[in-house]
């Protein structure tokens, strides 16, 4: 990973570290009667790695989809570098946000290099006629794209496999290729949806290093992951979603030490959970039932004991 991955953000005029680049406010996404994301605020600053964690179905991917133009939030607003994001995913990519997907979405029958070249199309200025006429401008642009794609493959450690078909790569390398393709659009913010899913510990460790290297190139990262060790090693800040709402946000130590987060992951009832009152009622009813059953059981046992004693007594009497 030695190749320079100069991006827009490393160029002069890039936001100073610590400047807010992503500002999501009150993002709500409803599907019919289901509120998958409810009034979530989240910022990502330049130079940061931010984690988004939460149990299955908490709304993490839906939130990502709201940030990348795949969904138009029912309520709320998302700004990137002070501009409201357009509601089309290719325009969001052009604005500077790139992403990978939980389920790898590569072009399986294209080569590794071709997959990265596809990711560069939002940065290629050559238009339709240039492509049809294949003039010198087109060839220059094509050469530059190819060089940049090879740089990115070098950066993620896949240069030697540039001519392999994507479908022939092992799983961990397919995930790296997805990252290279996302980087090809020269983003200022990279969203990673479960980048280590299905990886062994060694591959996970390598991915951690890769994400640090991406951040060091001036690209902010927002990452969803279920591997807590990965998240807490990596992130400057972590936000926890539970049932579509942001429960806690803070540095790794704060989040790890928060008993509501522990409870959310251990499946214990949450103190401020909207369903906690109902859960407490059910628990109380169950406890009362158990008490009643115990009392009945005790009475029956006592009766049985008396009967036995009596019988035994009778026996003794004999
Ligand atoms: N397109 C959709 N239509 C209807 N419901 C949806 C849609 N997408 C997501 N949901 C629902 O929204 C809720 C949140 O799902 P989401 O995939 O965002 O959760 P998640 O936190 O990413 O979960 P996981 O960790 O399992 O990937 C779930 O109840 C899910 O079934």
Automatic annotation (TrEMBL):
One of its GO terms (biological process) is L-valine import across plasma membrane. Residues 22-268 form the ABC transporter domain. It holds the Pfam family ABC_tran. One of its GO terms (molecular function) is L-isoleucine transmembrane transporter activity. The keyword ATP-binding applies. Keywords: ATP-binding, Nucleotide-binding, Transport. SUPFAM superfamilies: P-loop containing nucleoside triphosphate hydrolases (SSF52540). The keyword Nucleotide-binding applies. This is ABC transporter ATP-binding protein.
């Amino acid at each position: 990973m030695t190749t320079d991955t100069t991006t827009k953000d490393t160029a002069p005029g890039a936001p100073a570290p610590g400047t807010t680049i992503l500002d999501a406010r009150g993002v709500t996404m409803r599907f019919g009667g289901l509120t998958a994301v409810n009034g979530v605020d989240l910022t990502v600053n330049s130079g940061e790695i931010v984690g988004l964690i939460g149990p299955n179905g908490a709304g993490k991917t839906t939130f990502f989809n709201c940030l990348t133009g795949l969904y138009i939030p029912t309520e709320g607003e998302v700004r990137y570098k002070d501009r409201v994001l357009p509601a089309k995913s290719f325009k969001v990519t052009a604005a500077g946000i790139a992403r990978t997907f939980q389920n790898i979405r590569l072009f399986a029958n294209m080569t590794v290099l071709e997959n990265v070249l596809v990711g560069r199309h939002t940065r290629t200025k050559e238009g339709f006629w240039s492509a049809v006429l294949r003039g010198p401008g087109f060839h220059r642009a094509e050469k530059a794209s190819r060089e940049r794609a090879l740089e990115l493959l070098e950066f993620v450690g896949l240069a030697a496999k540039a001519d392999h078909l994507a479908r022939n790569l092992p799983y961990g390398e397919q995930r790296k290729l997805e990252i290279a393709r996302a980087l090809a659009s020269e983003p200022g913010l990279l969203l990673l949806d479960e980048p280590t899913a299905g990886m062994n510990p060694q591959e996970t460790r390598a991915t951690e290093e890769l994400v640090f290297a991406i951040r060091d190139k001036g690209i902010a990262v927002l990452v969803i992951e279920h591997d807590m060790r990965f998240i807490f090693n990596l992130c400057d800040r972590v936000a926890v979603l539970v049932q579509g709402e942001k429960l806690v946000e803070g540095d790794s130590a704060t989040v790890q030490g928060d008993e509501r987060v522990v409870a959310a992951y251990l499946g214990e009832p949450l103190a401020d959970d909207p369903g906690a009152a109902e859960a407490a009622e059910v628990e109380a009813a169950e406890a009362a039932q158990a008490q009643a059953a115990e009392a009945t059981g005790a009475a029956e046992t006592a009766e049985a004991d008396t009967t036995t004693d009596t019988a035994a007594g009778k026996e003794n009497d004999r």
